[in-house]
Specification:
seven-stranded mixed beta sheet; 751 residues; single chain
């Protein structure tokens, strides 16, 4: 586990150690042993030495009864395809399916759920299995060995019938017997009476066993297993990391479950503990996915200094150019304002018809448009003067003695000074009006603040509700602006393309029609944007400018948001510091960041960190489904409810119930999680009667003991051994048909 600081204060003063990185295991590979390793040739085609096949939906295991381990372990998948170039047909089985891309595309599973349904694929898999076991066919052309196969609880008759026909007709087997994998595992681990909980790849079964015989009619199934858990883990990680650089494969999600998941002792309590950063950091596991490191050429410090100096100089020149352009623009606007005011003053001395003709010559329809133009110019000039010129007033009030003197009384020099005094006076008057407007704005804000205080003191709850609604609207507006800004950088987004069309229409001398006429000239349509250079122009238009209006509006919205949040922090007891937008944007205070990237800063430029996943709450969420199926949308009872129902209601005899309580046996790959048996015992103890004695244990090897149990069961040499009584010989098959079945303690029973 990662070594972390025990307190927040120490964590802030001392640097945290890098977390331990867990890597993914290698892809699944074949697990086979050569037939010549330890096989006695005298047993070849020996009717006394059975072949044992654990026919599971996750893995198929095959070997001889005297083996300690199966000789072949592979997934129950096959592929067959025709190479048209070579004119050859290829067949692959087991892990060999994954070595060729074409074979992977043609892969077929022999199971539908946990029931064999693809019998052509089963025949190919059995061919592959017997070849790997070194069987070419005996003297009679048959298998030459009795066959022991596992099957699912309550296997449908049709599936068993088709498999039986394939074994006897296709392979000429001397005899065949079926058994339940969970009962074989229970028998191998010394079980006699107990409750067997078998959680495999596709389903979970609870089988009560009394005196070595499974009570099949009392068995209950839960439709959840390892494959469903893998799918859940895959979906959780895809939702958690939607933009992850590499695609997560099924076998990788399966490996994450097997290596990192565990069953929580108290799920709800531990889930709440994950909200504490210390506990989260302790349970968090960082999975490093493989990646290719991109080579980056680092520049020397001298080169970096030169680049920084160039940027600084370029920025300074741009600032000077912008200031000069703003000043020229301000002077031009002042001249325009003076001209339009002079034009407006002529309305008193001219007739209406002459004045209207004068307005039309200046592109005005009426006097209201002229007044609007004067107002807009005055507003723009005040804003520009506030930014660049400032609002400082001279110590003495300036005088303009020549303004009121008629031009006839002045010489040329006096007229020139009079024009200068007019410009200075108009600027002075504008500043005075701006100051008056500012004072009026201050008074208005003070009045609004007074009314706001009165509303808060009159009804605090209503005031808080209004402020929260205002804050929510501001946050939504800022998010919308950010989303729109992000979309505009993506040429494929709708907002970007709509703006592109607008720019195309503005850039074209003949804007494109809204609808293309039938039979129209295709070359006349707008093609602006078809070339990458057009998009470069668009990006220059969108981001090359100063963007002052957008920046000012964002700043204004942020200022208003911060003022409202400050009021809520001061007067709303339910609004705390971590609710503010700044706190939510700060990764050190973001719980979402802690779950996604851990309790350390995330560098998006670091390729190693980009290819890392953090497993925390998923480690207990996936194994919890067998206890709480409703978490995955499964409308079934959990294993504890099912077990309690079997023990308390379906088993009527007290002595049998006592025997089952003494041995609750867990087997199957989905029970291999750390803490599974402890959690099951804790949950069962809570629902069983007071002082009930209960013992929960797990198989020595939850995945291999089913095959080992079947091999041990059929290794008995006695003439009256149970397996010899249970086998269906080829002669019995020919006489009684493919549906004939002998009941025995390890198999499905009926009636």
């Amino acid at each position: 586990m990662t070594t972390t600081s025990s307190s927040t204060s120490s964590a802030s003063t001392s640097p945290k150690l890098s977390p331990k990185l867990y890597t993914l295991p290698a892809p699944p590979a074949p697990l086979t042993r050569d037939i010549s390793d330890d096989f006695d040739p005298t047993f070849k085609y020996n009717n006394e030495l059975p072949i044992v096949i654990d026919n599971g939906s996750w893995q198929t295991r095959a070997g001889f009864a005297h083996d300690s381990l199966p000789r072949l372990t592979c997934p129950p998948q096959v592929a067959r395809y025709l190479d048209r170039k070579l004119g050859k047909k290829y067949t692959f089985g087991g892990y060999d399916v994954f070595v060729d891309a074409t074979a992977r595309g043609q892969a077929k599973n022999i199971f539908d759920g946990n029931v064999v349904s693809n019998f052509d694929a089963l025949e190919m898999l059995l061919d592959y299995t017997f070849i790997k076991l070194g069987l070419e066919g005996g003297a009679s052309g048959g298998l030459g060995h009795p066959l022991v196969m596992t099957e699912v609880v309550c296997n449908p008759n049709y599936s068993r019938k088709m498999v039986t026909e394939l074994i006897f007709e296709g392979y000429n087997a001397p005899s065949l017997v079926y058994g339940i994998d969970a009962l074989f595992s229970f028998n191998y681990n010394g079980g006699r009476s107990g409750l067997v909980l078998s959680s495999g790849n596709t389903a979970t079964h609870l089988i009560p066993v009394v005196n070595g015989k499974g009570l099949i009619p009392l068995t209950t199934r839960l439709s959840w297993g390892g494959s469903q858990g893998t799918d859940l883990m895959l979906k959780l990680l895809q939702l958690k990391y939607p933009g992850f650089p590499s695609k997560l494969a099924n076998w990788q999600a399966e490996a994450l479950i097997m290596d990192h998941c565990y069953v929580s002792g108290d799920y709800k309590e531990e889930l709440e503990s994950f909200l504490q950063l210390g506990f989260l950091e302790e349970k968090d596991r960082v999975i490093q996915f493989p990646f290719t490191e991109a080579v980056k050429f680092e520049k020397s410090q001298e080169e970096l200094d030169k680049i920084a100096e160039k940027r600084k100089e370029s920025g300074r020149r741009l600032q000077e150019q912008a200031a000069k352009a703003r000043l020229e623009k301000l002077i031009k606007k002042e001249q325009e304002l003076e001209y339009y005011k002079d034009l407006q003053s002529k309305s008193e001395s001219m007739g209406k018809r002459d004045f209207k003709r004068l307005l039309e010559s200046n592109d005005f329809d009426d006097e209201s448009q002229l007044e609007k133009m004067i107002r807009d110019l005055d507003k723009n000039i005040k804003r520009a003067r506030k930014q660049d010129v400032g609002e400082e007033e001279p110590d003495e009030i300036p005088t303009f003695p020549l303004v009121d003197i008629p031009d006839e009384e002045l010489d040329e020099e006096g007229k020139k000074q009079k024009r200068q005094q007019k410009l200075v006076k108009s600027s002075y008057d504008a500043r005075q009006r701006a100051r008056a407007e500012k004072d009026a704005e201050k008074a208005r804000l003070a009045e609004e603040e007074r009314k706001d205080i009165e509303a808060r003191e009159r009804d605090l709850d209503t005031w808080v509700g209004e402020k929260r609604a205002t804050r929510d609207s501001l946050v939504a507006k800022l998010k919308d602006r950010q989303r729109l800004r992000t979309e505009l950088t993506d040429r494929k987004s709708l907002a970007s393309q709509m703006r592109m069309k607008s720019i195309a229409n503005l850039a074209s001398d003949t804007p494109a029609a809204k609808k293309r006429r039938r039979g129209g000239n295709a070359e006349a349509d707008d093609t602006f944007g078809a070339n990458d250079d057009d998009w470069a122009v668009y990006r220059s238009i969108g981001t090359g400018g100063t963007g002052e209006d957008d920046d000012e509006e964002d700043e204004e919205l942020n200022r208003e948001l911060k003022s409202i949040e400050a009021l809520l922090l001061a007067h709303d007891p339910d609004f705390e510091e971590h609710h503010t937008r700044d706190a939510q944007a700060d990764w050190t205070k973001s719980l979402l960041h802690a779950f996604l990237r851990g309790t350390r800063p995330f560098d998006p430029e670091n390729q190693a960190e980009q290819n890392q996943m953090h497993l925390n709450v998923e480690r207990i969420r996936v194994p919890e489904i067998v206890f709480e199926p409703s978490m995955a949308g499964l409308d079934q009872a959990g294993i504890v409810e099912i077990a309690s129902d079997i023990l308390l209601h379906r088993i009527s005899k007290p002595e049998e119930r006592y025997q089952l309580l003494k041995d609750v046996f867990c087997t199957g790959g989905n029970t291999a999680f750390q803490g599974f048996e402890d959690r099951l015992k804790k949950e069962l103890t809570a629902v069983l009667p007071y002082r009930s004695t209960i013992n929960v244990r797990k198989a020595g090897n939850v995945t291999l003991d089913a095959w080992r149990g079947a091999a041990k069961w059929c290794s008995a040499k006695e003439k009256d051994a149970e397996w010899k009584k249970a086998i269906v010989t080829r002669q019995e098959y020919l006489e009684k048909g493919s549906e004939y079945l002998k009941e025995h303690c390890m198999g499905n029973a009926f009636g």
